[in-house]
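Reopening this ticket.

The earlier resolution said the output was attached, but the attachment link was broken on my side. Pasting everything inline this time so it's all in one place.
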Amino acid sequence: MDIFLGVLVVMFFLGALDLIVGVSNDAVNFTNSAMGSRVASRKIIMGVATIGIILGALTSSGMMEIARKGLFHPQSFSLQELMQLFLAVMLTDVILLDLYNTFGLPTSTTVSLVFEILGSAVVLALVKYGEMGKVWEVINAAGALRIIGGIVLSVVVAFFSGLFVQFIFRLLFTFNLKETHRYLGGIFGGLALTIMLLFVVLSALKGSNMVPSGVAGFLEEHLLLFCIITFVLFSLLSQGYISFLRGNIFRVVILLGTGSLALAFAGNDLVNFIGVPLASHAAYAHIIEQNGNASLPGVALAGVVHTPSYILYIAAAIMSVTLWFSRKAQTVTQTEINLASQGETVESFSANNVARGLVQISLAIWDSIFRIIPGFIKNAIRLRYRPAGGKNTMLVREGYAFDLLRASVNIVTASSLIIIGTLNKLPLSTTFVTFMVAMGTSLADRAWGRDNAVFRVSGVLTVIGGWFMTAVFAFLSAGIVITIIYFAGFYSMLVLVPSTMAIIYLLGQLHRKRQKDYDAKLQELAYVQENPRKAIEKSIVAIADTLDKAADLLKIICNNLAKAKLEKLGKVRKGLSKLAGFHRISVAQIVQVARHHFEDREMLIFYSYTSSLNFAKKVVDTTGRICDQVVDHVSLYQTPLSKEEAADLFDIYDLASDLIKKIKEGIMKKSLKKALIRKKWNELTHLRTKIHKSQISRLKTEKSKLKTTVPYLVIVDELVELSANLINLYENLTVVAPYLLKKK
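Inline output:
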């Protein structure tokens, strides 16, 4: 009995931890629109969400399906086996959700829990019965397939719904919200508030004692009449609020929507996090009733169990505190807001080939459609999409990622889809719906332009891929953990629980490091936007540091070739990756800002600056190619370089190193002399000719072999190209220097 009590204590501890990691991920569902639009201060937004969570807990029916919607039949296992299963599920869920939180990826906490239970039940049935046929008797595969279908449906429908609805409302309201809000805001408010009311009654408070079952049934039967009456009433109230109180109906919709989504989350999803520990408590209670006999089948757990109110209140308190103080919750929210941002921001995801292909295909399709659209329609759309006040971007320093209209549409569209799913008993995921709606409205608002579309699409694909991998990881991980517990017994907790805590600690350390890097990039972006000229001067100094580091890596590479060894290549690869990232960040941050801060006559000088960045990137890219050539040469155990070949190799390296030194000195002293360019070009041309002649001579005298000569000359040519890029970089900096590097 003592061991089962110990398991129960561990389960409730893991339940509290699961609440923390769960709300850290799900918070994005109800805060992203308010936080992204900065409809109010963070304290007010968090306060509204907290009220929603508390009300959701207070009005929750507290009904928990232990069998998780019929995924498996508890009577197929003994009470002890069920406690083992529940323990495996909680250990897996805590780690999996915290892993997603660490990388700022929103996922479905319901899907993770469902597939953890499914995975552990499948494996437990397999090891217990040893027959696949018996497994299918224990598991309800139809329930799992229905959930997967809901995932796909959520992704596709939500994205295109957000795209279409936002496009329509943007055409109606334009970006000049102050003007259009006065005469269209009342109708929009009526529509939005009607949907909010339906959402609260039919979805957020579904099953609650506050909404009698007869009311919900009546609304479903007379839905159209109810919608018409409430729409007219709310439209009149909204227009009066706008006209007489000079209020902003968008703010009302966003804040009410935030509270409603938080209420729905706490009312319907809260038991997802505490349901498994409570199921363990029920199993423990039955073991006590049977005088410690844990081998009896878990028939009593097949029904519906009522959750005590005080547990719901404790859970709501934990979730509320987490919402206010969790850094990982902010990271997950930050990911979605960045992907939807209308203005300049730090792109959180790198480009990938799949995203490039999708963007290319999308552009081709759009160009085909655009050609057949009549000119007057295109002009009308262009006028409606013209930014207010002459601005075509909203900068980070202004504090918001998108305007109040888009934030309102996000909430209204997501709520509408959830209502439709509820009425049609479709297993839509709140996470999937809210995220994909936000991505669809972003595309409709042209937040994804040619300069950031690949990065944004890469991010969306990463998140969507993470959703499907959630099911895979949850299933497999829970299966592995239940196997360990089943064969090692409950004493395996002595290893599994400390291991879980250690993993969470390591993930916390990783998150702090990632967040520190992100904050540094964000500060850099803000600095660029506030002090563009100083930021460019600072980045030119950074170019010199980049070249210095490239020279150090190049020396390691040349030494490897000369000695026919492969040493410190890990350092070289890592260093080259960091240097490549410098160019992407610098261009993304500065080029866009220059459009708004530099006059036309200054753009030619700015072009020379961006050319300098490109040549610096070419130096890094060429260093990478040289590294690959050296690795191929040495790993094939080809003849090492002779002393003469190595000497010629280092002659070019010395020239490149000297160029880097001159560039850095010129930047630091703010004196770049054009005379140096011609001199270095002559040195480079002469040296290249000399090395080729020397190598031909060595071939004739058989001091070098033909198999060695070909890759050797390729490497030499790469070094020559690297030096040529350095010279071009220096030349462009001589144009920039008089303007941006003036002596104080």
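Reporter confirms the inline version is readable. The longest helix spans residues 249-289. The chain has two domains: 2-509, 520-740.
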